[in-house]
Specification:
- With about 130 residues, the chain is of the alpha/beta class.
- It is about 35% helix and about 20% strand.
- It contains 5 helices and 7 strands.
- The protein has a 5-stranded parallel β-sheet, sandwiched between helices. A two-stranded antiparallel ribbon has the order 6-7.
- Strand 1, helix 1 and strand 2 form a beta-alpha-beta unit.
- The termini are far apart.
Length: about 130
């Protein structure tokens, strides 16, 4: 039985990229494009992992994280283009298990190998 991942992302291109790579690695992927739907879906499908964007319509990622933490224990990784320490602290205090910086991923046109880290992110160990 494959593990279930809930991708919560309002940018369809990012959501699709995550879905493709996760499915390639054998995960069962569900997608919610807003915070309200994310809470509903998480209760329904009971995912093993949630990849959660911060800036979402209906309910932001911070609110979604707090709501999920009331009844669920799965890992939650906050996805953000921001690198602010305050955002990391807010996420961890709200129940997130870590963060992923979307700004450090790029897709080379025509590159079949997938996303790669920008050179400046590699220098910073990201």
């Amino acid at each position: 039985m494959s593990q279930k991942v809930l991708v919560v992302e309002d940018d369809i291109n990012i959501a699709e990229l995550l879905r493709l790579y996760l499915q390639k690695d054998g995960f069962e992927v569900s997608h919610a494009a807003d915070g309200g739907k994310a809470v509903e879906m998480a209760k329904e499908i009971q995912p093993d992992l949630v990849l959660l964007d911060i800036m979402l319509p209906v309910m932001d990622g911070w609110q979604v994280c707090r709501e999920l933490r009331k009844t669920m224990k799965m890992p939650i990784i906050m996805l953000t283009a921001k690198g602010e320490t305050e955002d990391k602290v807010t996420g961890l205090e709200g129940g997130a298990d870590g963060d992923g910086r979307l700004g450090c991923l790029r897709q080379n046109p025509g590159d079949q190998q997938g996303p790669h880290h920008h050179a400046d992110c590699q220098k910073r160990g990201l």
